[in-house]
Amino acid sequence: MTAHIVWDWNGTLFDDIDISVAAASAACRTVGGGDITHEAYRRAFTRPVRSFYASLLERPFTDHQWKAIAECYHRTYRNLLDRARLREGVADVLDSLAGAGVTHSLLSMGEHDEVVALLEREGLLSRFLVAEGMARQQRTESKQAVLARHLDAVRERHPDELSIDRVLLIGDTLDDNEAAVAVGASCVLLADGSYDPEKAAAVAVPVAASLSAAAELGLRAISSRPGPG
């Protein structure tokens, strides 16, 4: 059976941390907060995203303020989108792994149409069996729920039997790891991801410095896992 990698998009294949921090700073300012640093963003990031902003602002806020935060973030992010780029070597990594028999899918918590448009712009869409973002009404869900559905969609298009012990998720946040653990998949996080390193160490999630290193580390772990039964 072949191995399968589920790639996260924002912060993983797509290096958008700078514009994400800028958009989050703008969103905080719109309700009386101040600018945030990259370190504060990374250490505070969590889902649901409303809890993330409560942590950044160090106070609760009203539903009306939450609407203003969300609208400001997305407006600012879209305005800055041309400043973000793919991580170096994305296409080469995907093609090299595919040449070794690894299949790929992509699961993002970003809006589906926007994610697909970016994949098409970058010439990457055809490399994934399934590429999914979220419908707007789904974006409050945990990644655990959407990953389980995503894998069902992947199995429908996978050329071989896809067993969960052959699935690796590569991402950049602790909720990526939580989602993988919940469904029984392996996970590797990028070392510069949006999480507190001490929390990552506490749950013993593997980390790697690059996309290729993350894939190598995760696939090595998969190969050493006993098969089902």
TrEMBL record:
InterPro entries: HAD-like_hydrolase_sf, HAD-like_sf, HAD_2, HAD_sf, PGP-like_dom2. PANTHER family: PHOSPHOGLYCOLATE PHOSPHATASE. It comes from the Bacteria. This is HAD hydrolase-like protein.
